[in-house]
Amino acid sequence: MNEIHLEQYARLIVKTGINLQPGQPLVITSPIESASFTRRLAEMAYREGARDVAVSWRDELLAKIRFLHAPEEVFDEYPSWQKELYLSNLKQGAAFVTIAAADPELMKEVEPGRLVRAHKAASSALEEYRERLMGNSNAWCVVAVPTVSWARKVFGGEPDKAVDKLWQAIFKAVRADGEDPVAAWSRQKENFRKRREFLNDRRFRYLVFKNGLGTDLKVELPADHIWLGGSGFTQGGVEFIPNLPTEEVFTLPKKNGANGRVVSSRPLHYNGNLIDGFSLTFCDGRVTDFSAAQGYEVLKRLIETDEGSRYLGEVALVPHNSPVSDQKLLFYNTLFDENAASHLALGKAYPVALKGGEAMNKDELLQAGVNDSLVHEDFMIGSGDMSVTGITADGTEIAVMKAGDFTF
Length: 408
Fold this sequence. Notes:
It is built from twelve helices and 20 strands. By secondary structure, it is an alpha+beta fold. It folds into two domains: 3-173, Thermophilic metalloprotease-like (3-Layer(aba) Sandwich), CATH 3.40.1830.10; 197-229 and 246-406, no CATH class. Strands 5, 6, 11, 12, 13, 14, 18, 19 and 20 form a nine-stranded antiparallel beta sheet that branches. The longest helix has 22 residues, at 181-202. It is globular, with a radius of gyration of 20 Å. The two termini are 37 Å apart. The mean pLDDT is 95.
């Protein structure tokens, strides 16, 4: 493990990911296995002027014991103290860092209904927190740190060697292995700006996705959609990057505007389970049929979370060639796998991807065709032979992607 890269990674998260401001609180959500890096991150934040750093620790092994043995009614509840931790810091203007490093198959022995109930309870309790972050009221960033179980799933072999390999893969994916990662991301943000401008200037009414896996999907976009990606801005004007790594530009679809079939190109890790080899069929925006070679019941529970989980909330374009996909790894972690392939998301849409959307209430958003749900779950559909065609309001067709990469 390279100490210089570790320090650069921590600095990148604080300086570029959340762009921490002097006197600002920070909340870190972290697995206990990531304690060493979490402490490094906290120290970096204090050096950069953080007012205070609070950590919400996660123990997924203890969580598994709870899911296996606790009474059913427990999973319809969410701790009030945990809700208060997030909401109170949210209102104080805190920045939020989440470390995503779960064991991809830890919960495969757990009855899926328990996982879904717990997820719904958490989503309902933290609805205000989630909506404000999705509306960019506060800076936030999702990152990753290797754990033994995750590293061995990706690389196998001896634990120490697997963890070291995963560290190197993460450093490469987030551009933390160069001389100055903060400067490298300044250049990358310019690439994102050019892609956003191209897509926003064309005002596409539809996007058509096709590839050899069987994807053939036409997605309608709202008239006032906005393409975002790379960095975003809080409502107070602070620039931040929500995900490290990130290679996507994204917008929201019209809720009832998806028609056709999509086939997954990578497994989806959801609630401690893997869903693989799956397809979804859409009619007027709604999932009308689905299949899965692995994890069918988990996929079914996801789709049936609520009415909005049957509709799309995001359309994201990702180049087939990038520091993530060029490693030819299956990370078994959506943060990385979604940035190796174009993807869609079931569930809630980001209001900031609609002109004036962050100022609209729920009814106004629904009337504008913006989907709402307790979930927002990305799944990958991109491939090396994917084509994406944009269709303007007058019917003009423009190639957006060929062979998985942008045409511009």
